[in-house]
Design goal:
The protein is mostly beta strands. Helices cover 0% and strands 18% of the residues. The chain is built from no helices and seven strands.
């Protein structure tokens, strides 16, 4: 599986390591859900992921461990959430990141 679109599914929670077996995934769209937090290892073992869309959720905090395995990420969309804090070094793992969207957050 290379692309997974889970947008607009009213997801409240994503279980820890639920995507670990999808290590060939390039695109993951979780936008327009009801996610309030991410587990530290939600995106572990997803080294090939290039596009992650978490926009239009209810995330309030980004921790430095959330995206640590996403070395190939090119686009990360965190817009239209309720992000109030971003831990230091949260984006240090992105060596290929070209687009980071944080608009419409109360940062």
């Amino acid at each position: 599986l290379k692309e997974l679109y889970l947008r607009k599914n009213q997801l409240n929670f994503i279980a820890d390591k639920v995507f670990n077996h999808l290590n060939r995934l390039n695109i993951l769209d979780l936008s327009l859900n009801n996610l309030t937090k991410l587990e530290n290892s939600t995106f572990d073992n997803m080294a090939l992921l290039e596009y992650l869309n978490l926009s239009f959720n209810f995330l309030s905090k980004i921790q430095n461990r959330h995206f640590s395995d996403l070395n190939n990420l090119v686009d990360l969309d965190l817009s239209h959430n309720f992000i109030q804090s971003i831990e230091e070094n949260s984006f240090n793992y992105f060596f290929k990141l070209k687009n980071l969207f944080l608009n419409s957050n109360p940062i």
